[in-house]
Amino acid sequence: MPEYQTHEYDVLIVGAGGAGLRAAIEASAAGAKTGVVTKSLLGKAHTVMAEGGMAAAMGNVDDRDNWRVHFADTMRGGQYLNNSRMAEIHAKEAPARVRELEAWGAMFDRTKDGRILQRNFGGHRYPRLAHVGDRTGLEMIRTLQDHGVHQGIEFHMEATIVTLLKDGERCVGALAYDRERGQFRVLHAKAVVLATGGIGRAYQITSNSWEYSGDGHALAFHAGAALLDMEFVQFHPTGMVWPPSVKGILVTEGVRGEGGVLRNKEGKRFMFDDIPENYRSQTADTEDEGWRYTQGDKSARRPPELLTRDHVARCINREVKAGRGSPHGGVYLDIAWIKEKLPNSVEHIKKKLPSMYHQFKQLADLDITREPMEIGPTVHYVMGGVLVDAETQMSTVPGLFAAGECGAGLHGANRLGGNSLSDLLVFGKRAGEYAAKFAKENRAGQLPKDQIDAAARWALEPFDRGAAGVNPFAVQHALQEVMQNLVGIVRREEEMLQALEKIAELKQHAAKAGVTGNREYNTGWHTALDLNNLLTVSEIVTRAALERKESRGAQFRDDYPTKSEEWGKYNLRVQKGADGTVNIARAPVIPLTEEMRQVIEEQK
Amino acid sequence: MTPQNESKAIFRIWRGDATQGAFQDYTTEISSGMVVLDAVHKIQAEQANDLAVRWNCKAGKCGSCSAEINGSPKLMCMTRLNTLPLDQPVTVEPMHTFPRIKDLVTDVSWNYRVKKEIKKFQPRKPDAADGTWRMQQSDVDRVQEFRKCIECFLCQDVCHVLRDHHMHDQFIGPRFLVYAAALEMNPIDSADRIAELRDSCGIGLCNITKCCTKVCPEEIKITDNAIIPLKERVVDRFYDPLTRLFKMFG
């Protein structure tokens, strides 16, 4: 029988990215004994890779901005499938969360009058993203980390959750293993917050790190919590496409915010050819107007390169398919051209986009101040996640909360760039606050010995199969290929049905995965266990995408290429059936309050 | 030498645990544009599933995949194979300054303990009624340079005070001198760390050989911009003869 070390907490946080750390800070500040489990070392979570900035209507650069505009932008970007109450809370609370970071030591870029500088980004009407060059995520995670370590939070670095534990209906903790020694830890908690990020590792070409294996989504699903909007997977329009080994690495939208343009191999700015109706009145008519917008001309409208990510990614995909792409299967993103407009463009680009300059110089031998980049869509973000209450972030399982990318609701069918970092802060804080409150109001639940033993036994099975078992890396690679090719940026029914068959086969392979060596820092073993989560979320994404028979936001169906008014009335809600199957049901979109309806009207 | 498509290279990777280990050779296919981390992953997936290696972002932003490649401290994700001589084996081994855990993974927990001991950020009263501060970009440029640090700990790895003399209990190392400098030069921070820099941080042990600056993947001018100015502050406070005179009669 495996042995366990037991730890007791009021609040257990799973994940130490922006949402997890912000939740932990809030919970511990409320007096809750708080533990954080993170798969990596502290400060390495995926938030570190966020580049462009965090959206908050502070109006430092353009005083026409306020929460009403931000709310309307978020709803329009999400194609009105958003939880409007979450969008309202987010728009109202984001400025305070950004200012708080400054009070904790974050050092944002400054305006001329010494305030926090804000930049343009896709889908945001005014310059709204507080940023630090193109390394805003690093600034955010370091600030939260350095503040958090003085708060008395207990960190379990390099530990992974095997399963959530339940006492009846309620979540009462989790079983984890530490990666270094491979020992099990029972984490007994009155409330648990999932802040595990996304699912990008289910795909071949992704901007996401290995950690993004859909852990929170899958853990919540298996614990009986409802998920929402899982068909909506965001392809970021600009990932690197060459050399092959860096395919998918993110190129920040900030490049376009600073004046970068997209061209096909004929040199044409193709984004001007396809401007959606609901954005036409906000989009520049000419290249010159677009340039003036990026340089802060308040009378100018934004260039079409700064339309929403779903749209830009599809336009790039279309150019490539039509044979107008670049040599390595992308299109060109050109910031070097601004030398025609700015005499000191080389220095300017290096100052505004330092890590992009660095990244291309080192990984692709390319100087972005002189040459255009080759870019193409890359899996970046999942809008779907654990269904939560807008105010408290509690899931449908009592005591289980979710925040950040693994939660659902704020972004609807498509997320605006910059709304993720602010999401992490706003709802991370709320999750921590309400988890601490729940912990105060409820006694510790009973630890379920049978669940712990069963999960630990399951986790050790790959060692029993040893070298005779299936190579877990091979299964993971096969799954990534299936999702990339059959449930990608353009979807159709017969391909997704094929994907489901293959996922079912791969599940059988995964159940036979074997590993050699011992339990100490054994990456093969870690991968074998991650497979369960990856396969769970892959099946859910595919089934939800099959079910939604329309094209909206990030979901584009070749066989249903238009948006349907009928489908606009529903979110898709996913829940585990009694027999373990994935049940999908339509849930009516939360109706707008009269006040919010008016805000949307006035911002049209 | 530029790797051609479908050519092969040998990677001599250190395998072992806290107590013992040895280099082991792996031959693997390489293709154009590959970095060392790609090769290590390929070997892990195809030949050695239990090969331990840390990584996250694969884009030089998280500082997880630090190792010593052909003897030089580097990020595996940012070291292109075409910068290495591939007619001989490429050696990949864990950082030397930290205790080994397994294969390429080391125990860097000391760094987290050291950081916690440094007096944390303490802002002065906000400048504006809404709780915000006013700072000019030119006043924050230097601090932003220091805050680029990705905590890869390569500077700690190469620092001879730590690497050769093992003075981990007397010297906080370049990473945390940069951290302290970011706090000390922050225009709104009000704490004073000069005495602790001299005492518990051991800044005097640095004899400015600039090895740290050379290996910094973020190109932070660690010695010139962080350590030397901090040393000057310590000297001004504790060793300046005029100040001492004033203190004597003050």
Protein model, in words:
The complex is a heterodimer of chains A (604) and B (250). Chain A is of the alpha+beta class and 604 residues long. Chain A has helices at residues 18-29, 67-77, 84-103, 136-148, 215-222, 254-257, 287-294, 309-321, 345-352, 354-364, 419-441, 449-465, 472-486, 493-510, 523-547, 594-602, and strands at 4-14, 34-38, 54-55, 118-119, 129-130, 154-157, 159-167, 170-178, 184-194, 227-228, 233-240, 261-263, 331-334, 373-382, 385-386, 400-402, 570-576, 582-588. Among the domains of chain A are: 241-378, Flavocytochrome C3, Chain A, domain 1 (Alpha-Beta Complex); 463-570, Methane Monooxygenase Hydroxylase, Chain G, domain 1. Chain A contains 16 helices and 18 strands. The longest helix of chain A is centred in the last third of the chain and has 25 residues, at 523-547. Chain A starts with a strand and ends with a helix. Chain B folds into 2 domains: 7-106, Beta-grasp domain (Ubiquitin-like (UB roll)); 109-243, Alpha-helical ferredoxin (Fumarate Reductase Iron-sulfur Protein, Chain B, domain 2, Orthogonal Bundle), CATH 1.10.1060.10. The longest helix of chain B has 17 residues, at 222-238. Chains A and B meet through helix 3, helix 4, helix 10, helix 13 and helix 15 of A and helix 1, helix 2 and helix 3 of B.
